[in-house]
Amino acid sequence: MIPRYSRPDMVAIWSPETKFRIWYEIEAHACDAQADLGVIPRENADAVWRAKDVEFDVARIDEIEAVTKHDVIAFLTHLAEHVGSDDARFVHQGMTSSDVLDTTLNVQLVRASDLLLAGMDRVLAALKTRAHEHKDTVRIGRSHGIHAEPTTMGLTFARFYAEMARGRTRLEAAREEIRTGAISGAVGTFANIDPAVEEHVCAKMGLIPEPISTQVIPRDRHAMFFAVLGVIASSIENIAIEIRHMQRTEVLEAEEFFSPGQKGSSAMPHKRNPVLTENLTGLARLVRMSVIPALENVALWHERDISHSSVERAIGPDTTITLDFALHRLASVIEKLVIYPDNMLTNMNKFRGLVMSQRVLLALTQAGVSREDSYRLVQRNAMKVWEQGADFKTELLGDSEVLAALSPAEIEEKFDLCYHTKHVDTIFKRVFG
Description:
The protein is mainly alpha-helical and 433 residues long. It has 19 helices and 6 strands.
């Protein structure tokens, strides 16, 4: 991923230096296990560990790979340059390249998951704070983009909190799904390596042994992982779209923080654009791009092919780096989001009480009017608000058919905003406990 949309901690997980360090640790732990089993001499295993402080030369490994055309062999050759060819002769004993590559990929994905979970925790904390801050800040709810009935800004934040909390739970499950390793040798039969080696290496690397692998770890695990990242990205976009709508000039119920010296447009000095949430919408698309390729990686020929390899070299780093950046960008937007409660009230009252139509409808039916007639009475007065700019309550109070069923006091009571917020505490208890 490009530096503009990257955070250093996540980038470091996918660096060549980190990758080769993980490769080394897998090989060294495997040598330990082989020595414990008496398969290789203990002194050879110890000799491999003497390279633990070596900074592997990426350029040198690339130079060797240019000849070998094989990345794992190039690394093993470079490792032997540090350990000594005699002491290194038992490295990779009974293993195949996928044992190293697949186990390393899953180590990286687990580490990436931990950073993503931390990013989600920051988003959740920001949403919870803003939800409680604006629990009772009334705003109009919208369906189809049209004024519906009153809600609160706190409920909007709480809704997003619940969605992101579900995403976090899914990510924890995806982390567990991907937390497997395989040191099972060619085609996964353990013919040339004891299963105890796999158990030892996995324990040291924070993984659990893959119950049954071929020459590769099954890719349905990875499909699940990237699908979850795609869902989280969609949740990010869901929040971003709401903020972008609220920042529209004719709405302006909230807006991204506009810092001193910030410029909105090269042509129009007055502009304050929702550039961060627009960016989040774009980043979500990039994350979701990985989902279909990950699903298509599940189907491999027989005990292995490498059609998945090129895909994962791209989507592994790109997707986790992008989502990590997006989570922290979203958290920052929410933390600094400027809320305009007065504008929310102004918007809600723009159509002069029209949003209370359902309360009047229900009151008429409870007063003995048929639902069809109740709807007709309410709608004909509501249309005067839409088409003539009339006041809804005034029209109802002037309608003899409505007054035949409801008293003026009863009509007046149907315009109490508190009616719509009476269960906010109940919803908050459900969401936040």
